[in-house]
# Entry
Amino acid sequence: MLRRIADGLSSVVLFGRNIQTPEQVAALTASLRAENPDLVIAVDEEAGDVTRLERHTGSSRPGNLALGTVDDPELTFQVAHGLGRDLRTAGISLNYAPSADVNSNPLNPVIGVRSFGAHTATVARHTAAWIQGLQSAGVAACAKHFPGHGDTTVDSHHGLPRLDADAETIARVALPPFRAAVEAGVRSVMTAHMLIPAYDDTLPATLSPRIVGGLLRGELGFTGLVVTDAIEMGAVSDLYGITGATVKAVAAGADAVCVGGENAEEATTAALAEALARAVQDGDLPEERLAEASGRVTEFARWSRNLPQEASQGDGDGDTGLAAARRAVRVHRRPDARTALPLAGAPHVVELAPTTHLAIDGGTPWGMADPLRALRPDTTSVRLGESDLAHADALDRAALAPAEGRALVVVVRDAARHSWMERALDGLVRRRPDAVVVEMGVPSDTAPAAVHLNTHGATRVCGIAAAEVLLGAV
# Structure
């Protein structure tokens, strides 16, 4: 890879597998830039459930839905500014965040807590604040996933989502956060791999000249860098292959093609470059469009090279992330609730764990057991997935029996999207109506228990904030 950078590769993306410690990342980025001082180094760090810098510990910031719930744009600015300082210190110049998607479909399998919320105006003002905070610290932001991935029920990692809303609805609900991003000076926009017949009934947004050139460039007036979502995702690669999707994306108006996952290898990079050159020779890709894309990447690289010198200075964000997570916790009690907070004695914690989508590192810690144990070392816990509940007596053995005579805390994550989790939760609450339920994903419209907490995210600080409430530590 160092040889390719020296030969002209202009950008790289760091993934969780490349990151161990801040010092290690800084050394890595310095070694890469030694080959090319104008190298763009990007990362997908949303500072929430999707984290790369803190994948081993869980994020020290609560994520977008928590920030949107608090609804304090200045707080959002400060959280993003602190993240930007961390990224800049690590030598990263472009961050594939924030998600500007309006999570208008509560069953969305891939956006959820990554969004600032379900209301367009909220998402728009926090998208702008987040971008301004990050870029004021010396790192370019990237608003995603254009023109809005919030009203979908298919995960584009695996299939092609389809948005059947009309153009007027999309303009009213999904586009305002991206308009706000452009007005806030966002330097990059990431396209979505989804079919939107109101604009193009044939090509997914990433591959559509009508959406990239007509809507984003023309109607919204965006002049910065357009980057694709990971081009190997099933939504586009299953239709055209990685090389075919790459050619179509650049022809549509994309300037940079993101290659992630297990496909980020030298052979893949070479194959994509060859495919673009061949497409120009065959007349499938105008040479002028390729030159335009190259020029934008070069311009972006030179602009970003000066960011560390131009960025505002400060002393970091301290405990801003934890403070934000605390402000985002919501406690709900029905009138008939008999459970008192703080809890008396050490609880037994039952965590119902779903399989997360590919944007979330499966090894990133989350939950309530460890934060509660830090405050009450005699806390006990069990984590159960769908397969663990195959036996009829699984809840009796693992959840109810150990909680006999003790407080029971049931932790869920997007329960409304997982029927098995809803069934297990219902069974536990019926047997233990005094149980406290903690939802660490998108809250449901129904109250699952007499006392329940919503953290609006599953990051480390979200767990700490909820544990403090349960045990009266604040």
